[in-house]
Structures are given as structure tokens and as C-alpha cells.
Amino acid sequence: xxxxxxxxxxxxxxxxxxxxxxxxxxxxxxxxxxxxxxxxxxxxxxxxxxxxxxxxxxxxxxxxxxxxxxxxxxxxxxxxxxxxxxxxxxxxxxxxxxxxxxxxxxxxxxxxxxxxxxxxxxxxxxxxxxxxxxxxxxxxxxxxxxxxxxxxxxxxxxxxxxxxxxxxxxxxxxxxxxxxxxxxxxxxxxxxxxxxxxxxxxxxxxxxxxxxxxxxxxxxxxxxxxxxxxxxxxxxxxxxxxxxxxxxxxxxxxxxxxxxxxxxxxxxxxxxxxxxxxxxxxxxxxxxxxxxxxxxxxxxxxxxxxxxxx
Length: 310
Known about the structure:
By secondary structure, the protein is an all-alpha fold.
């Protein structure tokens, strides 16, 4: 079997769907960005290669863990007709929740998640034992986040922490004693972006099912109008933190780069969330989620251009 045939194999696509790999690949840009901004230059080749493998394995394992822990609640939603495929939604590019739909078995999902978790742990340990500890903490927090689905909307705070930990680990992978101020700003930037651009709009797309099953998400608890305002507040904070983050980085940025960051923030964060607040519409929540998912990647591209061309 050729490599192309392996990549297009129907069973592999189901495993990639379990780990939301299209989204995970985009997410890899966030820890890569954190490492570049922290150093102000490219890390050594071996560190870069090992880091990329570790980050891919980590995101693949944690996204799969989400579906494993949520298996019963997802099955309930699927039985009620939820989680349709084929929508213009980043997390639905492949099959949404293949475990809950019965196209993958639980043992298969556990083996997939466990195998990638092992790769991530080995890579994290080789990079820095601190990264290993952060990965374990992230997995535990992700499981806790899933278990609080019917308990409290404050579980979103855990989600923001989990997303931030990957970037924090990347910083420790390239420098053993990073700036505490840089870590705080980096953490806050990703935290607010995750809550406003990922967590709230993602839960908004499932608001009807969540109400039916008595889930305690932010859109269910606060209602669409107030949830939209909270998302806007978080994304405004993330927008301004972007400039603080690049300002405290040892890498100097010119006016052109800053204008590019402002334009990207306006296009991918502020305008979509403004449309959501005005419309209170599920399609606008999907649009915000899709666009905001690409914001760290877009910042990474600006930083990469700065390093390569200026």
C-alpha cells in the first residue's frame, strides 16, 4: 500500500475525525508561534523537529480524549439527531464524533488516543520534563472539562487553561527559564481567544441539543445575547493582548507587521463577533468559530515573514 493510499484510507479518515485533525493541524501554529516569539529566532533544527512531532501527537491525543470522555453524552445527542455532518464548520470537515456514531469502537479510540499520548509524553520528556508535566496536567484538565458538561458553565475556564498550556509547554521546550511576564501575557492571550473565539461559538452551534440535555454551557446559561457580549469582550481583550505579546517579544516588529496584525484581528475576530452579537444566529457562531480558529495561524505567518524577510 502506498503512502497516498494510507492517507486516503476510509478507516484512517475516521481516526483523524476522532482527533479533529484538520483543526489540530491549525492549532499546531500556536505553540510554534509561542516558541518563535519567546526566542526571537528559530530554535535548533532537532528541537524544532521533535517539537512538531510532539505537538501533533499531543493535540491528536487530547482531542481524541475529549470524545472518549464525552462518549455517553455524545451518544445521547446522536440518538436525538444531533451532530450532523457536512456543515460549513471546521470541526465537521470529517465525521463529527465518530465514536458516538458507532463508526469507530471504544477500544479503537482508546488505542488511538493512548498511542499518540505515549508519543507525546516521550517527546515532551526529551524536550523538557516540565513539558511532560504540563502535558499530563492538560490531559487531566481536559477530562475534567468534559465531565463538567452538566455541572457548570465555568468549565469554560478550564478549556481556556488547557488551550494555553500547549503554548506554555512550547516556551519551556526552547528555553529552560522563560520570562514570567511573557508567559503571563501569552497565557492570557490564548485564554481570552479560546473563550471568545472557540468555546462560546462552539457551544452556541449545539445550543438546542444542550438545552434539551440540560447542559450547563455559557450560551445555555447566559442566553445568546449575553453570551455574544461575553465573546466580544474576550476577543477585544485578545486583540489588544496580541500587540502586547509582540511588544514584549525580543523580536522587533515594524509598522507594516503591526498593521497586518491589526487587519487580521479585525477580519478574523472583531468583525465576526460583532456580526454574531447583532444577529444572534447559529450560522454566525459557526463563522466566528471558523475564522477565529485561524487567528493564531495568521499571527504565526506574520512572525514567520518577519523572521525570513525582514
